[in-house]
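Standup notes, protein team

Yesterday: finished cleaning the Fictibacillus macauensis ZFHKF-1 set.
Today: Thymidylate synthase structure.
Blockers: none.

Input for Thymidylate synthase:
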Amino acid sequence: MNQADHTYLQLCRYILENGTKKEDRTGTGTLSIFGYQMRFNLQEGFPLLTTKRVPFRLIASELLWFLKGDTNVRYLLQHNNHIWDEWGFQKWVTSSDYDGPDMTNFGLRSQEDEAFKAIYEAQMQRYQEKVLHDDDFAALYGDLGNVYGKQWRSWEGANGQTYDQIQYIIQEIKRNPDSRRLVCSAWSASDLEHQQLPPCHYAFQFYVVDGKLSCMFNMRSNDVFLGLPFNIASYALLTHLIAHECQLDVGELIYTGADVHIYSNHIEQVQTQLTRDPKKLPTLTIKPGVASIFDVELDDLQLNDYDPHPTIKASVAV
């Protein structure tokens, strides 16, 4: 049985039945609960939801972007990944260098006004092309500040030194698998003002027992319909990659969320997903010759037997 979809859908039902209406930074509005935990047995399959299609290559390229320590969306655009476009775009259109049509509240306006949506999409395409081909522009408006890649691979301490948290975790697992210090944090209070988006998944910890690697990740804020399926698969992939390098099997993936919410403009989509029966989970294969997590490329990852229900489209709240 596919417990991953069932566990996720149970959360969706719980929010619809018990969530509180709350306003939010984006102006969209949410149904929200506070405090929720889910567990996924990675031995049962790779937890990429089957009740709607979730794009694995986007998840994988984003994770590899984090692991490279990169914070510039150019790498993502080169891999046809547009997950972070809106955040860089927002940085540009609110700057004094922007000379195009007014993009105030572009996220909401593009959903409500078809004429504006066409204008917005033209400006977004202009932004993407400039990031890809203009080095100076990319340096200014492609970089999102000290987001995940920086914190994971180059955490800056009060002493001015930088620390590679991922490398430390891998070395410590190999040296002392019983360690209770296999922790990575992306939440740096001194960097919040320098981040285009403060970390939503702000910390994670690994645990080794019986030759299996488990991971628990924590989220301060979570868009359940669009974001959470990505987060589950991303941390499952990270667990597989580190287990692969450390010659371990995979164990459990544990999610702990704080403000867990469904945006008001996603409720219909969630209800559609709830009508669907889960299918068999896919499996993940990592090319055997890849020794280091830092050498992994997209073609080294193979998702097997993924046959989900069709995509359910929804707009991201920015």
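Follow-up from PR in the comments: The longest strand covers residues 249-263.
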